[in-house]
Write a structure and sequence with these properties.
Elements lengths: L2 E5 L2 E5 L6 E5 L39 H19 L3 E5 L21 E9 L5 E4 L4 E4 L10 E7 L1 H10 L7 E12 L10 E8 L34
Parallel strand pairs: 4-10
Antiparallel strand pairs: 1-2, 2-3, 4-8, 5-8, 5-9, 6-7, 9-10
Length: about 240
């Protein structure tokens, strides 16, 4: 007959004839009396290192602050890349704010145009209102006329292509660079008259000879005292 007797953490087996004893040990230990009220004991990892304690469910997770900074950085990089493809354009006629064709400058379907400020040409040019539709033209005759006032925009390639088509470039107008003196910059409290930059300007060398004899203007307004209101394209015969 075999006799089983608990001893410590194992079982003592005693045989009937030989009286030999053999102890069977177990790697399992009795459950603690308070099991269920705390976390279970950590199981050993290979190499004898204990596993880290489990994170309680009610502990808040650490905020991923780097993710928001990454998005801001990517937006800045996108704006910087976009700025590299932008061109400065100086408009002096119907594309200015409050004028009949300004709607095209804010139509994002045609491209991006960002208002930067007001300026005027460093050199004098004759600005005339000519033709049956009372269209403003800056004649490309440097040194004649007035310092022409207008607005400075930065535009993307799509808007620049639209403006070329809208202005009939290069037949009706020609897009050339001119030096523009900044009179007022967007977001600045004071005038920046000492700043000069180069901008694209749609002037013309393909004008009618008699246009040189027309009155010269320094600041175009379709509703000005000249009485020559601009005729919109959709209203022309």
């Amino acid at each position: 007959m075999l006799v089983f007797q608990l001893r410590g953490g194992g079982v003592l087996i005693r045989g009937p004839a030989t009286g030999q004893e053999q102890t069977l040990t177990s790697s399992f230990s009795p459950r603690p009396a308070e099991h269920g009220r705390g976390p279970p004991p950590s199981l050993p990892r290979p190499g004898g290192r204990p596993a880290p304690p489990p994170i309680p469910r009610d502990r808040p997770r650490a905020a991923h602050t780097g993710r928001g900074r990454g998005r801001k950085r990517r937006r800045r990089e996108a704006r910087a890349a976009l700025a590299g493809t932008m061109a400065r354009v100086f408009v002096y006629g119907t594309l200015k704010k409050g004028q009949p064709n300004y709607k095209h400058m804010i139509n994002t379907a045609k491209g991006i145009a960002k208002y930067q400020g007001r300026g005027r040409t460093v050199e004098k040019y004759p600005l005339v209102i000519a033709g049956k539709y009372n269209i403003p033209f800056m004649l490309n005759i440097p040194g004649t006329g007035h310092h022409v006032a207008g607005e400075i925009y930065t535009v993307d390639d799509q808007m620049l292509q639209f403006l070329d088509e809208f202005e009939g470039c290069p037949d009706m107008y020609q897009r050339t660079t001119m030096r523009i003196e900044v009179v007022e910059w967007e977001g600045k409290s004071s005038a920046a008259g000492s700043s000069v930059m180069e901008c694209f300007v749609y002037s013309t060398t393909t004008y009618q000879p008699e246009w040189v004899q027309l009155p010269y203007h320094d600041n175009y307004d379709s509703s000005g005292t000249h009485g020559l209101s601009y005729v919109l394209r959709e209203s022309r015969d």
